[in-house]
Specification:
The chain has 267 residues and is mainly β. It has 4 helices and 23 strands. The model has no long low-confidence stretch (mean pLDDT 95).
């Protein structure tokens, strides 16, 4: 088995080979993957973080040995915290990279780390993901992404989709969520009534066929923050999301799930 790591600020993960294929997700710096196949200059990968599979450009990654791959995924790693000004300096090369919040900083030690033969110096705020401060910090993390434009497959403040937003939010607290909304709906425990909802609970919405097509994060029992056109705050009730901008219900509520329990543990 071969392994790799994203060594650029962000790279697209596509449904098929070629740069014209649909983007289905993205890898942030420091995220790792298994290499399942190779075709031309593209790799078919399985992301270590969520098991998602897709194609990437082979030139947008660095090979990783099995020992480092396993260590990175068995131990919690520091990530870049909320800031759009974080940078990495490639020591000895006079090169730099801009980092996005949620990027992984593998084996970070005193603001520096090494990937293969490259030494990096991290300039910015980092955090070791932990749920201990969830109730105090959750809303700040959520609101950081306000007005981020909707982007199918996106996972950054510069373009994000509904489930990518959920995944990235929970990554800040060391909780691994699956990639797609329907997969996330299988995680956590059911909240029986919307009136019992708490900050961080997930609300899922379906279409006329009953398929989960959207997810958002509850601020409280009456407000939801979600990526739809952009990351925004809307009203929610037992019917679904009501958009003041459009003066109508835009999404039909299916179920509410709790990921973090009352005791600060993953449900």
């Amino acid at each position: 088995m071969l392994y790799g790591i994203c060594n650029l600020p962000i790279i697209p993960v596509r449904a098929d080979v070629g740069n014209k294929s649909e983007i289905i997700s993205q890898l942030l710096f420091g995220e790792t993957f298994k290499i399942l196949d190779k075709k031309e200059n593209h790799l078919f990968i399985q992301m270590a973080y969520d098991g998602y599979e897709g194609w990437i450009d082979a030139r947008q990654q660095e090979e990783l040995n099995e020992t480092d791959f396993r260590s990175l995924n068995e131990e919690e790693q520091h990530i870049a915290d909320l800031s759009t000004h974080a940078m990495l300096l490639k020591l000895g090369r006079e090169e730099s990279l801009h980092l996005l919040p949620g990027s992984t900083l593998p084996f970070l030690d005193d603001d520096s780390f090494c990937i293969k033969d490259t030494d990096y110096l991290f300039l910015g705020l980092s955090r070791l993901p932990d749920i201990d401060g969830f109730e105090q910090e959750a809303e700040e993390v959520l609101r950081f992404y306000l007005n981020a434009p909707y982007l199918w497959g996106g996972r950054s403040v510069f373009g994000i989709d509904c489930s990518g937003y959920v995944q990235l939010f929970y990554k800040h607290f060391g909780i691994r969520m699956k990639r797609d909304a329907w997969q996330q709906a299988e995680q956590g425990v059911v909240v029986d009534f919307l009136q019992e909802a708490k900050l961080g609970d997930l609300a899922f919405f379906d279409n006329d066929e009953g398929s989960i097509i959207h997810v958002g994060i509850l601020l409280n029992e009456a407000e939801i923050i979600h990526a739809s056109g952009r990351v925004k705050i809307d009203q929610i009730d037992n019917t679904g999301i009501f958009s003041k901008e459009e003066n109508r219900y835009t999404h039909k509520l299916r179920i509410v799930k709790r990921i973090v329990g009352a005791e600060g543990k993953i449900s």
